[in-house]
Amino acid sequence: MSGHGPATPLMARKATALKGEAHVPGDKSISHRSLILGALSVGETRIRGLLEGDDVLATADAMRAFGAEVSRSDDGEWSVHGVGTGGFTEPEDVIDCGNAGTGVRLIMGAMATTAITATFTGDASLRSRPMARITDPLAGFGTQAIGRAKGRLPMTVIGARDPIPVSYTLPVPSAQVKSAVLLAGLNAPGQTSVIEPEATRDHTERMLRGFGAELSVEDTKDGRVVILNGQPELKPQSIDVPRDPSSAAFPVCAALIVEGSDVLVPNIGLNPTRAGLFETLRDMGANLTYENLREESGEPVADLRARFSPDMQGIDVPPERAASMIDEYPVLSVVAANAKGTTMMRGVKELRVKESDRIDAMAVGLRANGIAVEDGEDWWSVVGDGPGSIKGGQQVKTHLDHRIAMSFLCLGMASTDGVTIDDASPIATSFPVFRTLMEQLGASFRAVNG
Ligand code: S3P
After folding, report:
1. Who's near 339: CB < 8 A, 6+ residues apart?
2. Hey, how many other C-beta atoms are within 10 angstroms of the C-beta on 87?
3. Residue 410 falls inside a structural domain
4. C-alpha to C-alpha distance for 331 and 17, rounded to whole angstroms
5. Spatial separation of the C-alpha atoms in residues 318 and 280, rounded to whole Å
6. How far apart are CA 85 and CA 67, in angstroms?
7. How many distinct structural domains can be found in the chain?
8. What's the pTM value of the predicted model, to 2 decimals?
9. 290 and 374, same domain (yes or no)
10. Ligand 1 probe mutation, 32, 54, 241, 326, most atoms within 8 A of CB
């Protein structure tokens, strides 16, 4: 898994109106967490709507390697027979997390306070990403880690034999770091706490409570303080994974920029720690409505209706919204290129350490297609000239990054000459049905010889 197959270049042609319903897959963040928390519970957890993308399948394999029984029934329901908090057994081989930063970082946390040793690796993208942000706080529990220079994978993690609980203030706004610390805290005695100056997605906190852990969350002047009581017995759950707002972003944004479009994307979770993109689009003047707004399992959910929006304006995206839309800036920049004026995105340094340097990857590809982009260490801006202004016609590099790949295909749909990506294969990590789903709405793709 640690390499991808041959690159598969793909062109998105200019699309005529996109119409219909887009049923996007299950939430990636919640899918990883369902498998990991299921594996740390005693008994059988059942999961419906799990995202069956490569990232999550790698986490399922990893949970098997740590001793859990994980299976899928013919009707698509997943079952995890967990081994309990502290019950992980030592894997016999290297754990290959593929492209998945969330997978590897959460699993490192989950095994860090059990006296076993595991070695982790991934694809070229994952092997280039920083892991010290995880191993630094884990060292506080007594966990050791030996990786390549600058804390890169492959890396061997030696779980603490007698873990000590930690209190950790996040130096970067990262739900992966927060979650790794909380998962490690599960097998430490006493209270583990995480202080996050900026709130990040809170799925781990919600799900830990759902699995029966004692956890408190308090908003203070220093930020959000999460306190977990260690060594709970997690109780298996029956989970319905909501559909992924980060995947919904693609059909929604494509509909806003392709003339004549009208697309319904049903059952999308609007957890405030995830829904920043949709607010931003509405601030830009997008014709985006929340239909059938309701609560499901304590989370706001709606059907999103996106219609072609010729009058969108560039805006300054509030930097305090960054964490709630961190994965959506690439596709937002494509919408910005189709709006009028400048869209300024500040406070987004984290984009530089995702599956690729997302500011750089988007800036280079947008410029190649004639769009004005400026960027600095933690900001970038895109100047748009309204609908119909993008000529396209160029091939862009996607750097093993699924969201860069899908963003440029959306750009192609709204361009005169189409846009080609050098490799569509990474899309399978998070949105394996992207192409079929977009074709059903009316998009048109063409495989290109590499
Ligand atoms: C995720 C957290 C975010 C996000 C990633 C999923 C998670 O990463 O970019 O796609 O599920 O916790 P960071 O925690 O590094 O910001």
Report:
1. 284, 285, 312, 313, 314, 384, 386
2. 16
3. yes
4. 19
5. 9
6. 12
7. 2
8. 0.97
9. yes
10. 326
Q: Please name the residue whose Cα sits nearest to atom 11 of ligand 1.
A: 29
Question: Cis peptide leading into 154, omega within 30 of 0?
Answer: yes
Cα-to-centroid distance, 447 and ligand 1 (Å): 31
Residue 11, CB half-sphere, CA atoms under 13 Å: how many?
Answer: 16
Task: Tell whether ligand 1 has an atom less than 6 A from the beta carbon of residue 102.
Answer: yes
> Rounded CA gap, 278 and 286, in Å?
9
Rounded CA separation 105/412 (Å): 33
CA distance 201 to 369: 33
Q: Which of 28, 35, 176, 430 to mutate to test the pocket of ligand 1 (most atoms within 8 A of CB)?
A: 176
Q: Where are the alpha helices (DSSP H) in 112-150?
A: 124-127, 132-141
* Span from the CA of 27 to the centroid of ligand 1 (angstroms): 12
* 129 and 258 share one domain: no
212, 300: one domain: no
pLDDT digits (tens, 9 = 90+) for 77-130: 999 999 999 999 999 999 999 999 999 999 999 999 999 999 999 999 999 999
Tell me which DSSP letter residue 26 carries. B
List the catalytic residue out of 96, 327, 375, 401.
Answer: 327
**Do residues 188 and 164 make contact, with C-beta atoms less than 8 angstroms apart?**
yes
Question: For the chain, how big is the Rg over CA atoms in Å?
Answer: 21
Claim to verify: residue 434 and residue 285 sit in the same structural domain: yes
Q: What amino acid occupies position 64?
A: R
User: Is the distance from the beta carbon of residue 29 to the nearest atom of ligand 1 less than 6 Å?
Assistant: yes
Going by C-alpha positions, the residue among 27, 31, 30, 46 that lies closest to residue 238 is 46
Question: Does 93 participate in catalysis according to the annotation?
Answer: no
Q: Is the shortest distance between the CB of 99 and ligand 1 below 6 Å?
A: no
The answer to whether 99 and 123 are in contact (CB under 8 A) is: yes
DSSP 3-state assignment of 302? strand
The 10s digit of each residue's pLDDT in 357-393 is 999 999 999 999 999 999 999 999 999 999 999 999 9
The three-state secondary structure class of 270 is: coil
The residue out of 201, 229, 257 marking a domain boundary is 229
**Ramachandran sector of residue 256 (left: φ over 0; alpha: ψ -120 to 50; beta: rest):** alpha
Residues whose CB is less than 8 angstroms from the CB of residue 149 and which lie 6 or more positions away in sequence, other chains included: none
The β-bridge relationship of strands 191-196 and 167-169 is parallel
What number of other Cβ atoms are within 10 A of residue 71's Cβ?
Answer: 11
